[in-house]
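Name: diguanylate cyclase
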Amino acid sequence: MNNQEIEKQELNELHWMMDMLTNVDVGLIVLDSAYCIKMWNRFMEDHSGKSDGEVKNNSIFEVFPEVPEAWFKHKIDSVFTLKSRAFSTWEQRPYLFKFKNYRPITSTEATMYQNATMIPIMSSDGEVNHVCLLIYDVTDVATSKKEQTRLNSQLEKLSRTDRLTGLFNRGYWEECFENEYERCKRYGNNSSVLIFDIDHFKNVNDTYGHQAGDEVIRQTSSLLLDMVRKTDVAGRYGGEEFVVFLPDTDSGKAKIFAERLRKKIEAITVTHDDKKIKFTISLGICQFNKDLPSHEKWIEQADQALYQSKEGGRNQTNIAS
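Structure predicted for diguanylate cyclase:
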């Protein structure tokens, strides 16, 4: 019996299994060693729109150009050579075949997420001449996990963010600052801390109301967030007071940042209930030095510089001496 006859016999033996698997909700494809499609089930027909007759004996790469050829060949060749299964999950590769997603529960996803299992089909002589590829629709699972990851990320962000301002809350920024202090202590970096607060903020609340005060704080925070770098840490100290850590920034460059912020704040007008509110900020800066015994003392030095700004008439920046 020649190889062609053996292959025909093996495929005939598979037909009874295919009859059983035609209606299961799993894609089933049989490939030969040349990556040609020998048979597939109704799941594949329904989702691809291609009949068995259209694809039979054609290369899988011709029928589905989106299949990554080098990756897929490596997977399939290992099944032929090692005579053992291979797998692909949606987390490694979202899909093998770009099928539309029709599940109502996961209708937000345009494409079906898939897991794939590649199974060697042994012939009577123990050789592997065909591979069975099973495709599982795991869109529900993938969507659920993605949503869970998104919610966890959102919860994590909420746990470290001040609700009113969107800045880091005190618990989180103080933890970051302590780490920055230890880094500076070890490597001698020229990092700086900046503290500022809104001048005469009590007058804003007393004159315009607490909701107006909240709006002033929100817009101050929004402007600050627009200015900071990704490596900076901006947080709310409490009330109308804010703190910014500027890694790898000496006091001179920190003052340039502070003055830009001060001038931008001075230039804006907050409108609340048709009332226009103008306000200013006072700022204090302290650059790291090896004599600082703790991160708390570092913040305290910046706070003293802020006090000098207030004593000097407000709406200015001072650097700790």
